Amino acid sequence: MLARSPSWKKKRKKPRRRKSRIAFFLAVFIWISVAGGLALLWYGYDLPNVHQLKGGTRHPSISVFSEDGALLATYGDLFGRPVHVKELPPHIPAAFVATEDHRFYAHFGLDIIGLIRAAYKNFRAGHVVQGGSTITQQVAKNLFLSNSRSMRRKIQEALLSLWLEHTFSKEEILTIYLNRVYFGAGAYGIEAAALRYFGKSAHDLTLRETALLAGTLKAPTRYSPLYNPQAAAERSAVVLSLMMETGKITPQEARSALKESVRVLQPAKGAGNCRYFTDWVLEMLPEYVAVDTQDLMITTTLNTALQQEASLCLQKALQQHPTAHQGAMLCFDASGVVKAFVGGVDYAQSQFNRILALRSGGSAFKLFVYLAALEAGMTPETRLADTPVAIGKWHPSLFRWKPRGEISLKEAFAYSVNPVSVRIAHTLGRERIVKLARRLGISTRQPHDLTVALGSGEVTLLELSGAYATICADGRRVAPFAIREITDCRGRILYRREPKTIQAITQDICREMKVLLQGVVDYGTGKRAQLTVPVFGKTGTSNDSRDAWFVGTAEGVTTGVWIGNDDRRPMKDVTGGKLPAEIWRHFMQAVLGGHVRALSGFSEIAPTPDDLPTEGVPEQEEKTQNLLDALVEEIDKRQSTSPKKARRSVASIEALLEELDE
Q1: How does the average pLDDT of the chain come out, rounded?
Q2: 187-239, pLDDT tens digit by residue?
Q3: Is 111 helix (H, G, I), strand (E, B) or coil?
Q4: What is 603-641 written as a DSSP string?
Q5: Which residues contact 361 (CB under 8 A, 6 or more apart)?
Q6: What percent helix, strand, coil does the chain show, rounded to 5?
Q7: Which of 237, 349, 409, 484 has the smallest C-beta neighbourhood within 10 Å, fewest atoms?
Q8: How far apart are CA 542 and CA 451, in angstroms?
Q9: So what's the pLDDT on residue 457?
Q10: Which H or E element spans position 221?
């Protein structure tokens, strides 16, 4: 009998190994399935019932109260009735899909490509600059979930999105979205927004009006046609171009829409100036609770007596200055509790909230330049040259300052000496200053050159005041807030403010910075803000006195004042050290009570240079108009029959859109 070869034995072992591998992978699959099932059960057991979306679209009644229980305002359904996508003109759903989720009809509720692209851009930027949420995810989050950034909420949002896509058609999801999304100014839903802004039904919206509404969704206050017409116009150009790129409108239609004039409906007269505050509260509301059909009661931090005092101070002061027509005031304590919030002189005439408006910071932005210097090891007594400086072709002017050769940081900050600020920024680098500003709460983009040292970038009064308050709070981050508690109609607490502490700057650096801030008021450009208690503040004036600021803290209370014109016309004889400082002083006397009085005899104090305007900063409105004009030209070029020229035109449009969006 023939002996069995070794190869025969090897062949007998292969099936056993294959069975072992199959058993192993089967076991792994089973355990993964079990773990996945348990995870779905854990995250999905308390998911809401999406079928409730088929009910009515009643908007909640929202009552806003002051800290002492006085009713400030009520909001409710702004005549919004349900509309269906099929009933609307085609350009309306097209605008929202192109702007918010251009792959809406292709994905299954989650846009994997969009998520990957957003993650890549955020990684390159080093912070969040783009989100990847689909319209379906926005419906899930806004209607059913809170805005917390927990992993549980993210997973539930994804599960709800898949459930919504399974339960409803794309048209139904888009209909739900358009009937529930918030457009600002208390308007929920496309019908309410059309009535609120333009006094017409959504069925009658023009292409440009639709683009304006679609543009508000990115930031309802910043891009509101009511609050910020210029930014709304810029954003609507972006929407129209996105619609053009997705093939929903022609270049000619986009060009015609850009030239279309739009009339925004102003509310009736008689609304009190607390409406700036309550509108801000309403805009923030979705960040804290889901705004569905339940009635809500909001207890805020506003002090009605101080609110009235701030409004009167602003109105009386501006009556004496014919070239200054608008202003804003914000007051809050060391923990960020907002006590007064005046976004303009008269809400009935203009609802544009100037506390949230972007304006050139001028010398008030130098806070971050000198903070960076102190963090780099300089001290208030460090001496630097105050002689003229040139960076390339840029020669910042000395204005009224007479060089002495060298001066201390304390003197340079007190008198707002431009060459010293520029030298610090050139030595330390622009990025260091911008990152420090971001650490203290400045979220707006800043110029990519050294003009940032003179405040050429734009800031809001809200964020700038919070940064100054942080220094006087020993470096603990102060973020002004307005909402203490939110309850439903039965008194159940839906949200309550919990204190949070973040150390943004060391206490040692803050002590040194307070020396500089006090010098501004004691003997520098802010003398008009003097009280009988220590005052820590800074003046600011932008190019040609288009913006005038004073932000200061006394006895733990911070107040910020801005004066200017909405059309950015220059003011005459208005600088941060004059009118804003005087308004600040009068108001703070009322805030701090009888034990504090203003120092008199300013005429006896030796004259010093007024707060110095910055120089060489291009005007934002001119830049914006040039970009819009260039965009119209590129749209015209797109009509060329040459594919090569069309591709070049598309690239130019994309570049212009990116610059406009920034």
Answers
A1: 80
A2: 888 988 888 888 888 999 999 999 999 999 888 888 888 778 888 889 999 99
A3: coil
A4: GGSPP-PPPPPP-SPPPHHHHHHHHHHHHHHHHHHTT-S
A5: 455, 457, 458, 459, 464, 540, 542, 547, 549
A6: 50, 10, 40
A7: 349
A8: 12
A9: 93
A10: none
